[in-house]
Amino acid sequence: MPGRLIVLSNRIPTEGPPSGGLVVALHELLAERGGLWIGAASDFADEPSETFQPVAGEERYEKATFDLTEDEHADYYLGYANSVLWPLCHHRTDLLAMERRYADGYRAVNARVARMLAQIVGPEDRIWVHDYHFLPLALELRRLGVAARVGMFLHIPFPAAADISALTESDEFYQWFAAFDLVGLQTEADVARCLDAYRRHPSGEMLLDGRVKLDGSIFKVRSFPIGIDGKTFADIAKTPPAHDPVHIRADARLILGVDRLDYSKGIPHRFRGFSTYLARRDPCSPRATLLQITPPSRESVMAYQEITRELEALSGRINGQYGEIDWTPIRFVVRSVPRETLVPLYRMASVGLVTPLADGMNLVAKEFVAAQDPDDPGVLVLSRGAGAAEQMTDALIVNPYDAEDVGDAIEKGLTMPLEERRSRHAALMEVVRNTDIFEWGNRFIDALGAVKKPAAQMRETPG
Ligand code: GDG
Fold first, then answer.
1. Disulfide-capable partner of 369 in 88, 113, 428, 433 (CB 3.0 to 4.6 Å)?
2. Which pLDDT score is estimated for 457?
3. The overall pTM is greater than 0.90
4. Distance 162 CA to ligand 1 centre (A)
5. For ligand 1, is residue 360 a contact (CB within 6 Å)?
6. Which domains does the chain have, with CATH numbers?
């Protein structure tokens, strides 16, 4: 009798139907397969508890939360996860905010979640852990004697060995991943970085069957490039919006950027690239407005406050330099817009500017392509630092650090002949279809189920 599926992610939809790509996909997968979805509670607890809280709902699967105290949230989530692991994995070791209490809080929350899981997990269950918030989870479960299959999907880039060595806990970092049975990464480049890091590790060993061995632990690493529900996106995009969401002149062009307000997304570099385009632009060519939609994120982390100030100053300076009384070149919107507005904006845009400095995949790139009119599609300008660039090779691929390269790509995108736009779009749409989010989830779950034996049974005693 196969066991159940247990999904652990930082956030779960606790109220009402889920919205947003990944959350909807996990919801659908669990509805189809049954199981349990666990995530952090939205309210702080006074004292950490040792049992999950069930969440009432109508779904065909169960949901439960683990609570966090305010101190745990500060050290585990804002501290270690978002001020240490996030910059580490995005090549920003200069931003590492290392405090011993962050690492302690991170380990303690993971150990507590593992204790709660150990109370409910059966040997045939599959535990699918999402992302950098839970790296120590499998190691903690093994310490408690849990033999179930445990897989990790890392949504963000796997760091290079040189960056890992900047961590105080670099030894543990290697052990954390090695304790999983299956480690899923976004791209082949991530897999190569991961294998390279373990190859360099004094105790790392590559087995003949492709798995990786570290001391007594053996794990498999594979790429599972994440995607979107492209069909639903394309269907929504076909419905004309009830009203014009941007009100730009009929002869003007729209360039769109959509990113959480995060330093990894390269938004200042993008603004400088757009400024380069403006500086060189023929005054008779149509005006282009860059609409940058930027929902705030992790606002209490210092590095995120700094980037907001930088962007406000930069957009003000560029608008002052190039704006006209009837034209504001950059519209910098620091809030989230509803999906019903976002999708028509994708479709209206002549150019989608997706220029992160580093990004696990970047779903906006895929959403932009899915929302286009195939007969008159917009052009995707995509950073080579985004995981999506490994598959979406028919985009205009740019170096996000090079303002002139970005400026040239904007110009090329705005002036690209219709035939070329159509053929590039058709090739990109094929990629979107081939990385359907539901298929992605099923592939990971099946691969986890196919792991030969629960790792605890294979594990040798480190000696
Ligand atoms: C992490 C990794 C990886 C954004 N603004 C609005 C809005 N969004 C939606 C987009 C898209 C999602 O948020 C952002 O996804 P990304 O993939 O671009 O980036 P991260 O949030 O950093 O996600 C990333 C991903 O995990 C999945 O594995 O691709 O590399 O960093 O769906 O549409 N949605 C609405 N209004 C907004 O203003 N409705």
1. 428
2. 44
3. yes
4. 28
5. yes
6. 5-227+439-449 (3.40.50.2000), 230-434 (3.40.50.2000)
